[in-house]
Amino acid sequence: MISKKSRCFLLIAILIFQIIIVKSQTYSVNPITPSNNPNPTDPPISLTNHVIKVGYKDFGFSRNNFTVGKGNVLRWEWEGNLQHSVAESTLETPCKKKEGGFDLGRHTSPYNTSMAIYEERTYVFFSDVADDCKKGMYGGINLPQGYTWPKDLAAPPPQIVTTPLNPTPTPTPTPTGSMSIAAAGAENTQESSSKSSSISASTYYLKESGYGIIIGSLVLISLYLLS
After folding, report:
1. What is the pTM of this model?
2. Which of the two ends of the chain, N or C, has the fewest CB atoms closer than 10 A to its terminal CB?
């Protein structure tokens, strides 16, 4: 016959065992959190989009008034035996170096270099060798509409009009019946959130049922000890 004291210890052991089970049920369920999509980044730099001949027709640039977009790459190719440079200036003073602007240096053919456009704005460039600029060796990128160069500068030679080597592709419409990436991402996020909510609810009910068992056991122990 088990003594009253032994039965009391047995009930306490059962209670401790139930607490351990409730704890393991509570922490064994890991909620699924939706993965965060990476923030949009700047468009990748494509291959060369525009080629500009430096020293074109002796004192000029083959492209002196054209438009570029952010992420485009310009390739400058020196030609001829005369030394020329490519430096950034401003609309107000096309033949004076801009402080902090780009400067590709003075070179003769053969020399090539490339530069990427990271900011979509107006760029003015010229050759700062001797009086190259006065002779028409200057140009602009993304010039304001209707802008005219200062009257004291010789007109640049007619530029070679070319199309970009790697034009930006035209976006294609989403086919009927398909889902866009953004919509798919939103749906996945909602689905993940729903799963997370349902699992959290399951965890809640596990905890509540476990606590009910513990409270019931405590009541039984109290009644037994008082009897």
Report:
1. 0.54
2. N
In a domain? residue 169: no
Cα 75 to Cα 31: distance, rounded to the nearest angstrom: 53
Compute the half-sphere exposure of residue 15: CA atoms within 13 Å on the CB side of its CA: 15
- Is residue 12 within 8 Å of residue 221, measured between CB atoms? yes
CATH code for the domain of 131: 2.60.40.420
Q: What does the pLDDT look like over 27-57, one tens digit per residue?
A: 333 333 333 333 344 445 556 789 999 999 9
**32 lies in the same domain as 60:** no
pLDDT for 53-107, tens place per residue? 999 999 999 999 999 999 999 999 999 999 999 999 999 999 999 999 999 999 9
Cβ neighbours for 206, distance < 8 A, ≥ 6 positions apart: 22, 25, 26, 29
Do 113 and 98 meet the contact criterion of CB atoms below 8 Å apart? no
Same domain, 28 and 75: no
Q: Check whether residue 132 and residue 194 sit in a common domain.
A: no
Residue 103: closest CA among 118, 82, 134, 124: 124
- The percentage of the chain sitting over the pLDDT mark of 90, rounded to a whole number, equals 44
For 114, 146, 184, 193, the CA distances from 69, given in Å and listed in that order, are 15, 20, 29, 39
**Is residue 127 within 8 Å of residue 133, measured between CB atoms?**
yes
